[in-house]
């Protein structure tokens, strides 16, 4: 009986999957919080599996503000290098039925805000990706597979092509100023790529959000391709992420002005931020926009950290153009209504309130739409900034129905 139900659900899921238009990581039900996806062994690494490699896993975790667990399922969608769903059948990219259960959950302990914490590791005995490329994991309630509660991106790489790269502040547009430029070399020896000029695509992601892509290398040499002196290799340098630590409500930690208990929540007021566009650069070893649940003197912050009403305040004149957004994993790196700040005329500041789990947070302020001809008006651009670049090399041969991810490399 269960097998018949799974088959029926599978047909429904196929229709839903191909109708997907928004494939960004995100939460679509306000009761779900703290969505994270990363390397299972090292949460500071992006969620990338190595195809066919034992011991390579990604971990998805999230909370639901609820008193008890519910029956949650998930499915995978295979995507191209632009994160559009591909048209290949599920049986080609997944081993087994493309419906899995989320078995691992735990109720929060000793918290004012009650929640259920869920964990999922891929691959697992239910689902194993068969092809390289981009994947979207969607979570839904068993009773309503059409309603996606949340989704997250991850990648499966073949690791066939070694990539080497360097970052320089001596760029084609300025010198030791507002930009960083990359030079990348792909070692094609043994990769059997017939036409590296037309079959390869290089995608570069800075700090998990800003993305540039190149469809052609600058030049091809015996056994390698070189990407250099192309405008897509030049990135605004940005600034180090801001941070705060809300690990102990008895003591204001880094970046925190005060805690207040206003039933039924603890509130935390962060120190008032100000623009840094024309300040001197200050190095800070950050988390590239990530956040980590954390609670002082706790062995299991995933279920013991509480949720706090967190108040952000950016003191500055109202901008004449563009909106201000909170950027980082705390807002799933989406510039939308949930991350957009509101200007308070009385305070002379942009303000935003979010319900966030206790932990270690990175964030920054982003203006959108931005004037690309000017310096970042809030954070500034400093060539010394310690950015994280993810390099993704895809191959699409003539007649192929999907793009293979040949290599994924992180450089700083």
Q: What integer value in Å does the Rg equal?
A: 22 Å
Shape: globular
According to DSSP, the number of beta strands is 30
- What is the percentage of strand-forming residues? 35-45%
Distance between the termini: 52 Å
Q: Please state the average pLDDT score.
A: 93
Reading off the top of the CATH hierarchy, the class of the largest domain is best stated as Mainly Beta
Task: Outline the low-pLDDT stretches.
Answer: 1-19
**Second-tier CATH architecture of the largest domain:** Sandwich
Number of domains: 3
- As a percent range, the share of helical residues equals under 10%
Enumerate how many helices there are, as a single number. 4
Largest sheet, described in full? 6 strands, mixed
CATH topology of the largest domain: Immunoglobulin-like
Structural class: mainly beta
Plain-language structure description:
- With 412 residues, the chain is mainly β.
- The model is unreliable at 1-19 (pLDDT under 50).
- It is globular, with a radius of gyration of 22 Å.
- The protein has three domains: 2-157, Immunoglobulin-like (Sandwich), CATH 2.60.40; 163-237 and 388-411, Immunoglobulin-like; 242-368, Immunoglobulin-like (Sandwich), CATH 2.60.40.
- It contains four helices and 30 strands.
Could you provide a short overview of the structure?
This protein has 412 residues and is mainly β. It has helices at 2-18, 90-93, 196-199, 301-304, and strands spanning 26-27, 32-39, 48-50, 58-64, 72-79, 94-95, 100-101, 104-107, 116-122, 128-129, 133-141, 144-157, 163-168, 179-187, 200-206, 210-214, 219-221, 224-227, 234-236, 242-245, 256-262, 265-270, 291-293, 307-315, 323-327, 342-344, 349-357, 359-368, 389-395, 404-411.
